[in-house]
Amino acid sequence: MVAGATGLVGRAVLAALSADKRYRSIHVIGRRAPDALDPRVQFHRVDFGQLPVLPPVDDVYIALGTTIKVAGSQAAFRALDHDAVVALARQVRQAGAQRLAIVSAMGADAHARVFYNRIKGETEDALRALGFYTLVIARPSLLMGDRAALAQPTRVGEKLGQWVMGSFQPLIPQNYRAINASNVAAAMVRALGAGTPGVHVLLSGTMQP
Q1: From CA 61, how far away is CA 84, in angstroms rounded?
Q2: Helix (H) or strand (E) holding 127
Q3: DSSP state of 107
Q4: ∠ at Cα 14 (10, 19), nearest 5°?
Q5: How many Å apart are CA 127 and CA 52, to the nearest integer?
Q6: Residue 115 — φ and ψ, nearest 5°?
Q7: SS3 state at 209
Q8: How high is the pLDDT of residue 79?
Q9: Are strands 59-62 and 2-3 parallel, antiparallel or unpaired?
Q10: 50: exposed, middle or buried (C-beta count within 10 Å: 0-12, 13-18, 19+)?
């Protein structure tokens, strides 16, 4: 199952899974249907604030996320990036899912002073408590990708950050360098596919090609 398959990382995850023949079916849940040609893909339109009963699956990829600016408030941001993510993870775990991979963020820490990082950290902690056999947490730095092609608003801060990082790439520690969304997706699929038990945190530097 893939949640958030119309976003930068989620789209790349879906593409990677479409090239992977291990899965009999790929369930995509979200508000908008993805552009998918793979006949194994089944789309389920959902409201993440009120999840329906979902089909049982083995592996789950969650690439949900927004910004406080887009969400409109801290409460709305938390409702998606924490509440919806945890509710989804809890439901699929109760239905038998054994492995889960999620896109978190660099600096995620439940005790962080920065609200964004604190919510990401609280979400990670909640997922750890659900008892997945394999839990993969990807913490990318600044994500690179074509948001315009996804009908997502351009983020001025991201554009500036990408320019700075591109100009000074050799001087920036690997974990802080901008990373392509496709590299994050590939690392998540690879790590979850390995099926190694426990919690595995993928720092941005380890996901770079």
Answers
A1: 14
A2: helix 115-128
A3: T
A4: 150
A5: 20
A6: -55, -45
A7: coil
A8: 95
A9: parallel
A10: exposed
Tokens of 92: 């699929």
Residue among 182, 107, 169, 177 nearest 137 (CA): 107
CA distance 121 to 191: 20
Distance, in Å, from the CA atom of 166 to the CA atom of 81, rounded to the nearest integer, reads: 28
Q: Which residue has the tokens 């090609």?
A: 209
With contact defined as beta carbons under 8 Å apart, do 98 and 134 qualify?
yes
Average confidence (pLDDT) per 10 residues, the chain, 209 residues: 95 94 94 90 94 95 92 94 97 97 96 96 98 98 71 53 55 79 96 97 94
Domains of the chain in start order, with CATH, are 2-207 (3.40.50.720)
Return the structure tokens found at 89. Answer: 């993870």
Q: How far apart are CA 1 and CA 56, in angstroms?
A: 9
CA distance 174 to 190: 20
pTM of the model: 0.89
Q: What's residue 10's pLDDT?
A: 96
Tokens of 14: 């879906």
Question: Is residue 189 within 8 Å of 16, Cβ to Cβ?
Answer: yes
Separation of alpha carbons 167 and 130, rounded Å: 42
Residue 137: beta bridge partners?
Answer: 102, 201
Beta partners for residue 3, in sequence order: 29, 62
Residue with tokens 């801290």: 74
Structure tokens that stand for 25 in this block:
């079916």
Six token digits for residue 197: 């038990």
